[in-house]
């Protein structure tokens, strides 16, 4: 999916549209992939629909069955036969596209930063120890545990990883009518404005002299609570009306995974492994993250 989006960013619109119409070049394989994804999602939606029918028959509305697709099926299917498959499929593909590789890229950079900053790792572990008993540190109970909110230092470390390595590194927006940017630059209608979220996370003017340092403390106030940074400063999830709808769920997911993995395992980056970003619309690690994993002693 990312390849297709990136391709359509760099190839003129008329060219990829023509390729798509003629079913040639990269667009041919994208159409084939889209067909496979559509088929897969159609099956997922159908099976959820069957689940919903079963549940309504047995009046079983357990919270443990909850997931995003179930919620969508419920919202859109008051009349069970009137489910809009296309809407559900398109919504599911948006959530899949927006929420899968962004989180995995963010976690990759986060674990790399943590494993190369032992002091930060030690502080995160200390905070986990103070807030969770051993029994709670598993996937199932973590998600429903209010203690996640107490992980102020971990929150700071995740914000730092997202600041230094924003999963969506650049974006563009198009002016509908002429406008003047806050900098005073005039923009005429249909002008495409590109902006780099990656650069904005690394500007001295915005973050201070230590802008290149991985410093979770940056996000913690003297009173020990998290410092809020407005989205126009911390732009990783974009700002304004089209900002990320998955921001809160992303933090929850990342915290659950960080606690579950860091409290159970130590990760050591393999010596000589080259860590650098790839050229794509999502800031993946070009060669992945090679680590040696060892179990922590209790
Ligand atoms: C660390 C993880 C994530 C980051 C950094 C991130 C970042 C972003 C950014 C920068 C945008 C704006 C894109 C644009 O303007 O073109 C966006 C939009 C969006 N994100 Fe996320 N995202 C993340 C995770 C998620 C998750 C987990 C979900 C859903 C489960 C999600 C759902 C969405 C949706 C639906 C939009 C489109 C909003 C709109 O256009 O109105 N995101 N995200």
Automatic annotation (TrEMBL):
<keyword id="KW-0503">Monooxygenase</keyword>
<dbReference type="InterPro" id="IPR036396">
    <property type="entry name" value="Cyt_P450_sf"/>
</dbReference>
<dbReference type="Pfam" id="PF00067">
    <property type="entry name" value="p450"/>
</dbReference>
<keyword id="KW-0560">Oxidoreductase</keyword>
<dbReference type="InterPro" id="IPR001128">
    <property type="entry name" value="Cyt_P450"/>
</dbReference>
<dbReference type="InterPro" id="IPR017972">
    <property type="entry name" value="Cyt_P450_CS"/>
</dbReference>
<comment type="similarity">
    <text>Belongs to the cytochrome P450 family.</text>
</comment>
<keyword id="KW-0408">Iron</keyword>
<keyword id="KW-0349">Heme</keyword>
<dbReference type="InterPro" id="IPR002401">
    <property type="entry name" value="Cyt_P450_E_grp-I"/>
</dbReference>
<protein>
    <recommendedName>
        <fullName>Cytochrome P450</fullName>
    </recommendedName>
</protein>
<keyword id="KW-0479">Metal-binding</keyword>
